[in-house]
Amino acid sequence: MNLIRTAVPSDVPAILAMIHDLAVYEKEPDAVKNTVEMLHENLFGENPGIYAHVVDNPTAGEPIIGFALWFLNYSTWEGTMGIYLEDLYVRPQVRGGGYGKALLRALAQIAVERGYARVEWSVLDWNEPSINFYKSIGAAPMDGWHVFRLDGAGLGSFGATSVGVNA
């Protein structure tokens, strides 16, 4: 029997392995700096900031065959929280079995139950299989919006400057 459930600490190594697999799929195989210890702390430490759901399926040869990692965001316009899906991954050998849809449905159910305004995520523009899948469940792209990121040297340089206000 397949089961979507909240991740537990013993799932962390399998989740991290799938994060590495996702990075390979997204053509960034060396970009993952995360470790088992870091992921465990962020999921289950004193101040967890992320959440994860997993797909259990021991008959598929792997105890966990997919995951959704997410965190809360806030809409100033809606005046309520939302879910930001950071990663959704299903192992290639079991794709097409409805596991990705089940993970997304679990997040949608959480959002509805808690009165959140939305579930949102980003997808690479070349990832047509995922784009088509998301459209098939009723998700729509955010036309007119671009994702921006400040990281690495740019973040270090900008963050190191004083916060004074110039009149």
UniProtKB/TrEMBL annotation:
Its EC number is 2.3.-.-. Keywords: Acyltransferase, Transferase. One of its GO terms (molecular function) is acyltransferase activity. InterPro entries: Acyl_CoA_acyltransferase, Diverse_Substrate_AcTransf, GNAT_dom. It holds the Pfam family Acetyltransf_1. Gene3D superfamilies: 3.40.630.30. Residues 2-167 form the N-acetyltransferase domain. It is an enzyme of class 2 (transferase). This is GNAT family N-acetyltransferase. It comes from Arthrobacter cryoconiti.
